[in-house]
Amino acid sequence: MRLLLIHPAYHSGGAEIAGNWPPAWAAYLAGAIRKAGYEDVSFIDAMTDHIDDDELARRIREFKPDIVGTTSITPSIYKAERTLQIAKEQCPGVLTILGGVHATFMFKQVLTEAPWVDAIVRGEGEEIIVELIRAYESGNWLEARKTVKGLAFLETVDGATQIVATEAAPTVKDLDAIDPDWDILEWNKYQYIPLDCKVAIPNMARGCPFTCSFCSQWKFWRDYRIRDPKKVVDEIENLYKKHDVRFFILADEEPTINRKKFVAFCEELIARGLPDNVQWGINTRVTDILRDEELLPLYRKAGLLHVSLGTEAAAQLKLDLFNKETKVNDNKRAIELLRKNGIVVEAQFIVGLENETAETLEETYKMTQDWKPDLANWSMYTPWPFTPLFEELKDKVEVFDFEKYNFVTPIMKPAAMDRGELLDRVMNNYRRFYFKKALFSYPWAGSGMRRRYLLGCLKAFLKAGFQRKFYDLGKVGYWGPQSKNKVDFHFDESRKMDAATTGDWKAAAERSRKMQAQMNPADIKNCGGGDEQMSEEDMEGIDETVKAARAAEQAALGADQSHRMHV
Fold it and tell me: Could you tell me which residues belong to the region Disordered (predicted)?
């Protein structure tokens, strides 16, 4: 059994300006596949290697795989579909598999527009992919696939083709049993520009108990689970010793959510002496930083160098819309605390909703001058079609070209300006912010790692700007304010959107929120809300709520053993 995993060749001018990021999904899936006894697994990173269709076809043809699998977030879905189409063209008998968050919820549309996809893996793939391989190996794939939980596929009955989704598979309960195969990656390719070193994206926890309206991660992972901190440090130590990885970013939505385990993680890193050689970064919430003020020196000692804060919006109106339930002044205080403790802090702003104006964009810039973060990032609002906020705003969404759903392209058109002006004002914020940092801040940021890191970030930013890769400026034809009326985002207007399928997809955070609402609506908290969120007592409460929700779900499933969705 020959298996080939392929990372689709999608580029957007977003996060990749900081370097080449190793596709962690391939390592985690390859580890599960090999652990199950299937050793003949290979990987092609078409994104990092800039592999075009002809070269990809040649490599697939030479490898002669039995199964080809790829993954996709929303903006890379068309590249992923094309990848599997090429596989079918070169090896007609190959089994083509697609996974990832977009395919999980949009499987009806994907299978309709890409009928060459033999099966879609819905949700976490480590356990489902092994069951899928065994079903295929049985020699009776068309029948065996119906017994595998977590799949969606096309089935022809009496000459009519229908879409079938099998019962949703349970989430992976024992994360510590997952053993990623990082050896499948060619590590010389994955360089992090700010520190000129190899970078990795390990995973400490999956899921989130909060329900931010613009986020799809809590819905995809369904329930919150966290690994043994020592197991995570084992993985990081192995990455350092075996592959010379000297910077990593935890893939978690919010690694500080369980303070006790995050502290244990930091202490384990220190005990093994890893901070002498390995630095790292995280994304987290403002309220966690305020909560952990006394622990910030420990976090820095453990090697935490870069914290990206979900400040999200300067205007309180937007914070409320996003269900953030945090206050603008909280953002300023959190930034001050991080900088005081020698940690580089990045402020994240979501811009480009339909109520955006020149004044609100200017307000975000003024906030950066007041808050004084080391880095700032203005991300275009991207209306994931499977999120609650999309349901609220869908009547205002005009663009259904998913390739542009990448945080750098203005999908929404503000009522008060066109998309070209929106891009120009965002670029104006970037120019002013980083010009001042380059002249008056970074060169004088002391000595040692912090100064080196900030100058490295400036280098990455300038390099991407010079190459016209930042925000896809070269592709859209933006050359400054004089070109804002000539910008062309090249939207494919022929693309249409089908409805997401989430009815059978039960997220523990959502169930928890509904249960809390029934008991005491005042107790409901969202991402970023509250004063002392996620203490150990909070975590125990979440665990009990998740257990109750799971029990209710199992009871419901038990009442319908033939659970299958025909569309």
Answer: 515-535
All domains of the chain in start order, with CATH: 3-165 (3.40.50.2300), 190-516 (3.80.30.20)
Cα-trace Rg, the chain: 23
Q: H/E element holding 279?
A: strand 279-284
H helix count then E strand count, the chain: 21, 17
**E runs forming strands in 167-207:** 191-192, 197-200, 205-206
CB 380 within 8 A of CB 352: yes
Cα–Cα dist 88/42, whole Å: 17
What pTM was estimated for this model as a whole? 0.88
In degrees to the nearest 10, what's the CA dihedral of 352, 357, 358, 363? -80
Calculate the alpha carbon distances from 432 to 18, 345, 440 in Å. 20, 18, 12
To 5 degrees, how large is the angle CA 95–CA 97–CA 100? 175
Ordered DSSP codes for 49-88: TT--HHHHHHHHHHH--SEEEEE--GGGHHHHHHHHHHHH
pLDDT at 75: 95
| C-alpha to C-alpha distance for 275 and 117, rounded to whole angstroms | 44
Residue 215 C-alpha from the chain's centroid = 10
